[in-house]
């Protein structure tokens, strides 16, 4: 799904009701935590990237992009797998994860973006990976 199609699909007014009365309207979703994150990864190991957001509206979408492409559209689509969307607190919090199987140096050059969108707006969480080095690498230890 292209981003413009997502906007068209969510083009209706966003209005939450509690006991029949409006609680909030036109509130964009909000990422829980930092919007820009660097994560240290071990080459050759699996890595989960997580994204959580307050929906602030019904019909909120949450999805991942890898280098601005949907994970399922990547040439190596089986290597990076997006989880199903899940919710907490009766749908107020959305969660979605991305599994990177066998982290490679190519993954260190990639950008991973969690996108959360509703009729009132859009927010993103961008993740970059760095290599995690072993503290004892390159040191000769004497016993």
TrEMBL record:
Pfam families: YLDV-IL18BP-like. SUPFAM superfamilies: Immunoglobulin (SSF48726). Interacts with host IFNA1. Keywords: Disulfide bond, Early protein, Glycoprotein, Host-virus interaction, Immunoglobulin domain, Inhibition of host innate immune response by virus, Inhibition of host interferon signaling pathway by virus, Interferon antiviral system evasion, Signal, Viral immunoevasion. Counteracts the antiviral effects of host IFN-alpha/beta and key IFN-inducible proteins involved in viral RNA degradation suxh as host OAS1. Acts as a soluble IFN-alpha receptor and thus inhibits the interaction between host IFN-alpha and its receptor. Residues 29-130 form the Ig-like domain. It comes from the Eukaryota. The keyword Glycoprotein applies. This is Soluble interferon alpha/beta receptor OPG204. It comes from Perca flavescens (American yellow perch). Residues 1-20 form the signal peptide. The keyword Ribonucleoprotein does not apply.
